[in-house]
Amino acid sequence: MVQAAKQLMRERGYHATAFSDVLRLSGAPRGSVYFHFPDGKTQLATEAAEAHAYEQVEIIDRAAEQATSAAELVERYLDLGRDGMVASGYARGCAIAPLVTEGATRDSAEVGETGRRTFSEMIDRLAFHFITFGVEQAAARSLADAVIAGVEGAMITSRARHSPAPYDAVKLTLADFATRAPRSRRARR
After folding, report:
1. Cα separations (Å) of 140 from 1, 30, 73, 129, 146?
2. What's the rounded mean pLDDT across residues 114-129?
3. What is the mean pLDDT of the chain?
4. What's this model's pTM, rounded to 2 decimal places?
5. Rounded Cα gap, residues 137 and 152, in angstroms
6. Which of 26, 50, 61, 140 has the fewest CB neighbours in a 10 Å radius?
7. Pairwise CA distance, residues 53 & 123, whole Å
8. pLDDT tens digits for 36-83?
9. Is 90 exposed, middle or buried (0-12, 13-18, 19+ CB in 10 A)?
10. Alpha carbon distance, N-terminus to C-terminus of the chain
11. Which residues are paired to 183 by β-bridges?
């Protein structure tokens, strides 16, 4: 059910994702909803957002394993997002953003905290890898913030335009920044 909710939230958003749709997509019996999610839709949404962040951290880690520099990590991560968007027919979004943009944070303080925490997990993981590639700590944090903000913006404009161009523009700009970012004296890679 969490994976189905994540998929639907990425495609439709928070408010347009109904339990009945989650049940239909997941094939779960109706009675299981309130057994597994006694706090209702907000619990399901927070678990879907957490699953999305976990998946993104894994993607970041895989991209970092294949990269040889901070710039290449930026390129690989943006390419993966771009390819996923194109493959989805420009239907895919973020499972975390709707919690913030659709006002779900007003429904529950936990939802608001989940949005902050899950975006922070992705930013922290990117910053860690940028530092590992030798980027100075403050610059690594700025670059990580910019990558996540850029991906989120590229997702929206790419869907609206039915074009991968926003991903390409963000990739070009942020890879260039990564190349020119201040270097740490204690680079590990």
Report:
1. 36, 46, 12, 8, 10
2. 95
3. 89
4. 0.87
5. 23
6. 61
7. 10
8. 888 778 888 888 889 989 999 999 999 999 999 999 999 999 999 999
9. middle
10. 40
11. 135
